[in-house]
Structure prediction request, 323 residues.
Amino acid sequence: MFKNLITYRIGEGWATDAKQLAEQLAKEPFLACAPTQPLAVGWAPPRGIEHAPLVEVVDGHWLVKLKREQRLLPSSVVQERVDELAEHIEATTGRKPGKKAKKELKEQAEHELLPRAFTKTSATQVWIAPAQRLLFVDAGSSSRADEVITLLIQASPGLSLQLVQTAESPAACMAAWLLDGVTPEGFQIERECELKGSDEHKPVVRYARHPLDIDEVRAHLTSGKMPTRLALSWNERVAFTLTEGFAVKKISFLDLAFEGRAEASGDEAFDADMALATGELGRLIPALIEGLGGEHDFAAAGAPAPAALPASTEAVAEEAPPW
Prediction:
């Protein structure tokens, strides 16, 4: 269900429940692009079924979805049409269009071409754990996450969000794990990583499908290169890549996570997938934060480190070992 997670802490004072949030999001629903509209963004039902709830709730976890549609208009196509219009003006008036006129011709060309442009549709999921005041955006880039967060804050008055920061640098911790082979309990180094130097040339070394407990990797680390990405697994249940900015990418659930799970289809499959994802990741993320020294803001505020999110009923039924 989730491929990437960027983690946010929900600020105090946000008392909205799932029903209220759905009403707030309904004020900005997704509507497909009009013929001359380059981009459309809005909230859509997470199940992908028309008129379904805009906020899905499973075992106390909420799921919302931001949908975007963009008309694809290659710059080369626009320029070709601008050139045609400019040539026509020159042929009929004897004068070449100036800079200002060229800008107006570009706007005219885009307006003419947009109705014929192909559209690309994408969606970004947001997982909210209100009891733990945590929010996760399934985005592969910070810019896409920023777009979602900005629109969510605009939609829900009183909502404030801050990126979760760990007490210890993820890059420094990943370097230590690679040097001595000792990882936090439950975590295992896998076979991919990226190392980057800090000098003016910023050299990059990448390993893929390659053992990392070798002298070559340690030599890169001792020479000053730092990990920017490292593939890990957790308790043989989830595989993922950790980045230097504490983003969790390339999430995949391993066979052990599916043991004891009954076959499901339709709406039941959606609920089962959400229960599995929130159950497994709801324990992995707090364990990862703890492995990186805890949450930085908690130490400053004198509050306890985040407790693991409650496992879904399906995850509990699997009788996973404690960690």
